[in-house]
Amino acid sequence: MRVEVHVHADIPILEGVSKKQIEQALAPWLEYLDGEGLGDVKSLEPDEPGLKFDEKDLMLYVCWTGEIGRSFHRALDEALENLGPYCYEAVEVDLTLYQENGDQEGRLLFVGPTAQAIHEAQRRCMIEDVAALLERQFDKERAAEVVMLVNDMFDRDWKDKAAQPKQPERAFEAYTKPSRKHLH
Predict the structure, then answer these.
(1) What is the pLDDT of residue 1?
(2) Contact 27, 76 (CB under 8 A)
(3) Do 7 and 93 touch, CB atoms closer than 8 A?
(4) Per-residue pLDDT at 167
(5) How far apart are CA 10 and CA 60, in angstroms?
(6) Measuring CA to CA, which residue among 107, 88, 86 is closest to residue 96?
(7) pTM (2 d.p.)
(8) Where exactly are the structural domains of the chain?
């Protein structure tokens, strides 16, 4: 079965990090795509840049669509984990899978310099999503009640993680986004 994927992110990079370092970090993904450098990564969509590092703005732009196989996720995960230490801050990487039968699945990946930075990026995204959803029905004050609960949940989650035996710090995390099935 043919699977197409779209990967999108604007990843801020630390000052002093070179394009070569980014290409080395992304090597598992580049190898998967049979590319040696960022310029070799072409999107199926002609108006998408693929992978582009803006050395002036210190930003790695990812806007790529391609056909993938089973080992794609492992290559992308490894590349994002390698890239984490070069990130200025943690950000989300939006991944959308398009199945041949028309189904689609979304995943949010997070890449950043530390596990705590990623946790805070996850908190920020969750709060934005929850607030936007609730504010469609309720005023901002009522929505803020739930946002406070979400904030508390993230605080408790971080404390729970800190209390667990030390595990290797990961430079990225992945979560499945809820499916938005359209009912007609």
Answers:
(1) 59
(2) no
(3) yes
(4) 56
(5) 6
(6) 107
(7) 0.80
(8) 3-111, 115-168
Q: What is the pLDDT along the chain (184 residues), one digit of tens a residue?
A: 568 999 999 999 999 999 999 999 999 999 999 999 999 999 999 999 999 999 999 999 999 999 998 899 999 999 999 999 999 999 999 999 998 888 899 999 999 999 899 989 999 989 888 888 898 999 888 888 888 888 888 888 888 877 777 655 555 555 555 544 433 3
**Token pair of 98 as six digits:** 């398009």
Burial call 89-110: b when 16+ CB within 10 Å, e when fewer: bbbbbbbebbeeeeeeeebbbb
Side chain identity, residue 1: M
Q: What CATH class does 3-111 carry?
A: alpha beta
By residue count, the chain amounts to 184
